[in-house]
Design brief:
With 255 residues, this protein is an alpha/beta fold. It has one domain (6-254): TIM Barrel (Alpha-Beta Barrel). 47% of the residues lie in helices and 17% in strands. It contains 10 helices and 12 strands. The protein has helices spanning 14-31, 46-56, 67-72, 74-84, 102-121, 143-150, 162-167, 172-179, 209-219, 234-254; strands at residues 6-9, 35-38, 59-64, 88-91, 125-129, 137-138, 141-142, 157-161, 185-188, 190-191, 199-200, 223-226. An 8-stranded parallel beta barrel has the order 1-2-3-4-5-8-9-12. A two-stranded antiparallel sheet has the order 6-7. Helix 5 links the parallel strand 4 (88-91) and strand 5. Helix 9 packs across helix 10 (234-254). The longest helix has 21 residues, at 234-254.
């Protein structure tokens, strides 16, 4: 395992990229990261970022792009994805107006299918990233299962955030096994023991990583994407996650 399946969601180091995107990318490359997933571009532009990625031997495997931006400036979204060389474009979350009732979830599914077609025509794979709210029950089933059933697997993949699924009361392993290759992208962060269940670097909490990563391997997951919403030491935490995740994946993929 050489880290080629590991990426970093740059939202984790947003305080650094806001001030110095290009310098932060250099620091991440020095840690061993060879792929990143964007969530905005900090104080740089895609045109400024791409040559630095190429220089560092880094890949922009994907980006988080909100529904509103898709709807208001689609051409720029597609231009930015092409400039960076992204393979994946993922909706990171949605507001309450898309998730409170079955009708709203159905409407969201229609939008996601439509955006999936647009992305596919542009040579991109399109996906949806979960938090915890998708695992609440809405009229008999979870929003997550309903949204998955209403979206076309050929158009909408599931970027599965393992931490948030567990936080929401779901069984992450069962979900990975159920949805299989549709979960091409796995977001990984650990969970602290205790009532608050804060996020932690991979390997520094209570998550059962050998079993989770083995499920990802069996499902054919392509990327393991480090992310923390509230890191205590952003650069230090992502370095710890990379080192621990590389070791864990090395063990899983050697079996």
């Amino acid at each position: 395992m050489n880290g080629h399946r590991i990426a970093l969601q740059l939202y984790t180091v947003r305080d650094h990229t806001a001030k110095d995107m290009l310098g932060t990318l250099r620091q991440l490359a020095a840690m061993g990261y060879r792929a990143v997933e964007f969530a905005g571009y900090g104080n740089a532009t895609p045109e400024e970022i791409r040559p630095v990625l190429d220089e560092l031997g880094m890949q922009a495997m994907g980006a988080h792009v909100g529904i509103q931006l898709w709807q208001t400036d689609r051409e720029k979204v597609l231009h930015d994805m092409a400039t960076l060389g992204c393979s994946y474009a993922v909706v990171p979350s949605v507001g309450e107006e898309y998730r409170t009732t079955v009708g709203q979830i159905q409407h969201l599914a229609t939008i996601l299918n439509d955006l999936g077609r647009v992305a596919q025509q542009a040579g991109l794979r399109f996906g949806y990233h979960n938090h915890a709210f998708e695992f609440t029950t809405v009229e008999g089933t979870t929003m997550y299962d309903r949204l998955a059933a209403l979206t076309d697997p050929d158009l909408v993949l599931l970027e599965f955030d393992i931490f948030w699924a567990q936080f929401g009361g779901a069984d992450p392993i069962a979900l990975i096994e159920h949805y299989g290759r549709r979960m091409a992208l796995l977001h990984v962060k650990d969970m602290a023991a205790g009532e608050q269940r804060e996020d932690r670097p991979v390997g520094e909490g209570i998550m059962t990583w050998p079993r989770l990563l083995a499920a990802g391997r069996a499902a054919g997951s392509e990327w393991y994407i480090v992310e923390q919403d509230h890191p205590k030491d952003p650069l230090g935490d992502v370095h710890t996650s990379f080192q621990n995740l590389e070791q864990l994946l090395g063990q899983v993929y050697a079996l």
